[in-house]
Specification:
349 residues; alpha/beta; Rossmann fold; 2 domains; four-stranded parallel beta sheet; elongated
Length: 349
């Protein structure tokens, strides 16, 4: 039986150099059943060692390795003894740092390309679209002009002679295209080969295991304290409500603000599902008249949005003040919203 601790034992570290596709790398790794986390390229040596990755992926990025102050991978990445995969800019900085050379390309490749397979290393394996060809998505101006000692070229295009390279002895791999995007038809398989065959990671990161892990984490974090959650009936808050209820039971109270703007009978459905069927304590705040009065005569969509948001906060706060002993406020939101709201170093690929 897999324990909650074990599902994150096999892990991939992604160092972000600012590509717009970096989050996709993490997604593809987790789709392969392997836990991953992404950090900025300047992550400290101490933190990298503490993370204890089975492998490291260097993302793409918008900068040129020739620019003063352009980002570099921490040296520990190449001394840690774990496999490394450099993607686009990740390949270029790895090549420069290990003794190769990168130059500005005379032909910039942005879009579909056909890569000719020259050597079948562990990363490529038996993959192909046409005979000894891969259909990929390129996005680069600079290109590697000399590979470091110990590396071999494994795939190329007419304008990019080092489209894929590898040093199998040290388990270092580099690719000039983006395997994380859907336009690279065998991209998921390439990343799967890296995390499974090369890094030796098991497929432990599954939906069932993730739910068990989150429930255990919630119990440890919350203890015996009370939690308040704003329940809308949408996917985000509904998932949080279900997880919290399974973790802490009656310690959870939900406030459902019925603003009168829902679909027909949706308010009753929310109460039936969560209060009656699941046994969650749900306080229904009937605020239809209040919302409709506040919205009366307003035609501007943005103004309406702000009115609804303001009224929701006020109604929710009024209900919250009626409760005693609540220590935590829970919020349900999807991961892309977290990324969009956070300060980001991302740029073009």
């Amino acid at each position: 039986m897999t324990t909650n601790t074990q599902i994150t034992e096999d892990r991939i570290l992604i160092l972000d150099f600012g590509s717009q596709y970096s989050q996709l790398i993490a997604r593809r790794v987790r789709d392969a059943g392997v836990y991953s986390e992404m950090y900025a390229f300047d992550m400290s040596e101490e933190d990298i060692r503490a993370f204890n990755p089975n492998g490291i992926i260097l993302s793409g990025g918008p900068e040129s390795v020739h620019e003063a102050g352009s980002p570099r991978a921490p040296e520990v990445v190449f001394n840690l003894g774990v496999p490394v995969l450099g993607i686009c800019y990740g390949l270029q900085t790895m090549s420069e740092q290990l003794g190769g050379k990168v130059e500005a390309g005379t032909v910039h490749e942005f879009g579909y390309a056909e890569v000719d397979i020259l050597v079948r290393d562990q990363l490529i394996g038996e993959l192909q679209d046409n005979e000894n060809q891969l259909h990929v998505w390129m996005s680069h101006g600079d290109k590697v002009s000399k590979i470091p000692e110990g590396f071999a070229v494994t795939a190329s295009t007419p304008s990019c002679p080092f489209a894929m390279v590898s040093d199998e002895a040290r388990h270092f791999y580099g690719i000039q295209f983006h395997p994380e995007v859907t336009h690279t038809s065998k991209g998921k398989e390439i990343l799967s080969n890296f995390v499974h065959k090369i890094c030796g990671c098991r497929s432990l990161w599954t939906s069932e295991h993730i739910i068990d892990l989150r429930i255990e984490q919630l119990r440890q974090q919350i203890g015996n304290e009370k939690v308040l959650l704003g329940l809308s009936g949408g996917v985000d808050s509904s998932v949080v409500a279900a997880l919290l209820h399974k973790a802490i039971g009656d310690q959870l109270t939900c406030v459902f603000v019925d603003n009168g703007l829902l679909r027909l009978n949706e308010g009753e459905q929310v109460m039936q599902m969560f209060a009656e069927n699941m046994g969650i304590r749900v306080i229904r705040a009937d605020a239809e008249e209040r919302f409709l009065t506040a919205l009366a005569g307003e035609v501007d969509p943005e103004a309406k949005r702000k009115i609804i948001g303001r009224e929701f906060i006020e109604v929710f706060a009024e209900e919250a003040r009626k409760l005693d002993g609540v220590k935590y406020l829970a919020q349900g939101t999807i991961y892309p919203d977290v990324i969009e709201s956070a300060a980001s170093k991302q740029g073009k690929a």
